[in-house]
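Field log, afternoon session.

UNIT: design team B
ACTIVITY: writing a sequence onto a fixed backbone
BACKBONE:
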């Protein structure tokens, strides 16, 4: 085949030879069919000029390349688009704030019970701090409290005993006061009776003396009067005997009671239950009762003797009056002596009655005063016990407060999970670490809380970032070449950036919340759940650009640079 150039036909072999010739020498190509090899000398000048006027091969290739690029690549670059993405690092966290657990006290860590990523129950122990000193303080306070409670019990028993003693003493005082009042009233009646009977006896004797001077007939009347008088005296003597016997019985009963009380108080004294002064007081009462019993016995004997004397006197007077009825003068003298004797006896009896009344009054006053003193002493002892109990109750209250405070401090030494969930962060992973008060010891995501991917997006990748944009998430634990990616959407973009540590230094980054379409990785028909704390790379398609922009961007930058 030949080509036409300037109206002239150029053989194909000439063109072929022109392309292969590199020098003026003839090249022999072995193993090729025999061809006619043309040298420069075979061409005419016209042919040579025509050949030299043709374009070079590389020039034609560049022209063909430009034409091909213009016809194919340029339309494709103008019509095709590509995704511009922004990538950032993130980790799965709970939606909302996780529970930050800060230490309420300081101390060395002695045990760590959980690990990061572990699920925990509410109240489960996370870690323990050294608490030997607090436990020793609690034990010491409990021992002190036990001693205080024992002492309080003893004081309470003593208080009850003193209260019972006061009540008993008050009852005894009332009974003894009533008894002494009766004795006092009886002595008053006895004195009044003696004072009232004394004038009567004197008057009778005066009448007898007056009538002794009368006629004998008057002596008979006097006999009748004497009979009446002596009968009255005998009756009175018998009444006094009965009263003396009654007093003897009462005093003897009191004396026997005082002996029993003395024996009982001696037993209490030997046991240390009462003071010695109380025993001495009871001994005094017993001695007093013994004297009163002896006195009553003497009074009975005296009354019996008086009755006998009255009976003898009565018989004597009657017989004497009958025998001496004719001896009125002698009788007058005898009556005068009897009058003097009766008057003296009445005076003695009145003095004795007055003495007894004063004695009863003194005994009554002494008994009442002694009872009051005993009650006052017991009340003072009771007030002292009440004061000791109040002081001890205050000490017990303080000790209980100390125990409660120490137990609260002990509870703070054991860090427990406030909620059920997953441990996101555990700064202290090994024992022997020292924890300061207020320092973060754990961060727990509540169980069942919704999860999101918290992404730190560099500021240069957030110019076109908006909520609702699709996101492709590649988890570090699951290579995307084998497990693929998890898609999601941008839920929230923080209004302001902050400095974060990117490993190579601090960078400005926005916090982006990404909601995942699913919470698991699909692999070979199995679902692998995603856990809190897992890290990933999030790629957000921020916008789509034409491919030609990649070609024009360098020229735009050069233009902006002033070139």
């Amino acid at each position: 085949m030949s080509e036409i150039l300037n109206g002239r036909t150029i053989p194909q072999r000439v063109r072929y030879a022109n392309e292969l010739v590199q020098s003026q020498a003839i090249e022999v190509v072995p193993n090729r069919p025999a061809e006619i090899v043309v040298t420069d000398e075979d061409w005419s000048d016209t042919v040579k000029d025509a050949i030299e006027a043709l374009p070079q091969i590389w020039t034609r290739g560049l022209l063909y390349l430009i034409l091909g690029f213009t016809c194919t690549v340029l339309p494709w670059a103008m019509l095709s688009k590509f995704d511009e993405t922004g990538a950032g690092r993130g980790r799965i966290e709970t939606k909302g704030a996780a529970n930050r657990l800060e230490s309420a006290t300081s101390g060395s860590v002695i045990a760590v019970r959980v690990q990061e990523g572990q699920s925990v129950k509410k109240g489960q122990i996370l870690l323990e701090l050294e608490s030997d000193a607090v436990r020793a303080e609690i034990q010491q306070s409990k021992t002190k409290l036990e001693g205080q409670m024992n002492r309080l019990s003893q004081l309470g028993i003593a208080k009850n005993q003193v209260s019972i003693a006061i009540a008993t003493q008050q009852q005894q005082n009332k009974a003894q006061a009533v008894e002494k009042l009766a004795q006092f009233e009886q002595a008053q009646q006895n004195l009044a009776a003696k004072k009232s009977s004394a004038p009567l006896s004197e008057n009778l004797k005066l009448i007898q003396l007056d009538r002794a001077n009368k006629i004998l007939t008057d002596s008979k009347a006097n006999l009748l009067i004497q009979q009446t008088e002596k009968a009255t005296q005998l009756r009175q003597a018998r009444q006094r005997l009965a009263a003396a016997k009654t007093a003897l019985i009462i005093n003897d009963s009191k004396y026997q009671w005082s002996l029993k009380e003395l024996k009982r108080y001696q037993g209490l004294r030997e046991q240390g239950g009462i003071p010695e002064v109380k025993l001495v007081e009871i001994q005094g009462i017993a001695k007093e009762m013994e004297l009163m019993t002896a006195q009553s016995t003497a009074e009975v004997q005296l009354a019996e003797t008086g009755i006998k004397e009255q009976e003898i006197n009565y018989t004597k007077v009657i017989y004497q009056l009958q025998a001496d009825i004719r001896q009125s003068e002698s009788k007058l003298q005898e009556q005068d002596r009897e009058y003097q004797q009766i008057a003296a006896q009445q005076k003695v009896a009145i003095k004795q009655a007055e003495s007894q009344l004063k004695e009863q009054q003194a005994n009554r006053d002494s008994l009442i005063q002694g009872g009051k003193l005993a009650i006052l002493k017991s009340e003072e002892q009771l007030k002292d016990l009440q004061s000791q109990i109040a002081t001890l109750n205050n000490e017990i209250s303080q000790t209980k407060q100390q125990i409660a405070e120490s137990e609260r401090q002990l509870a703070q030494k054991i860090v427990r999970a406030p909620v059920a969930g997953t441990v996101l962060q555990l700064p202290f992973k090994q024992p022997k670490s020292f924890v300061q008060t207020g320092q973060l010891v754990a961060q727990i995501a509540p169980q069942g809380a919704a999860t999101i991917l918290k992404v730190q997006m560099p500021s240069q990748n957030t110019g076109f970032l908006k909520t609702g944009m699709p996101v492709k998430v590649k988890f570090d634990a699951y290579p995307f070449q084998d497990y693929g990616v998890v898609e999601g959407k941008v839920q929230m973009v923080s209004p302001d950036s902050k400095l974060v540590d990117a490993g190579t230094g601090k960078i400005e980054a926005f916090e982006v919340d990404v909601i995942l379409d699913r919470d698991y990785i699909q692999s070979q028909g199995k679902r692998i759940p995603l856990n809190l704390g897992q890290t990933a790379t999030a790629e957000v398609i921020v916008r789509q650009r034409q491919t030609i922009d990649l070609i024009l961007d360098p020229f735009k930058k050069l233009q902006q640079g002033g070139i």
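LOG NOTE: The two ends are 51 Å apart (CA to CA).
NEXT ACTIVITY: expression trials, pending approval
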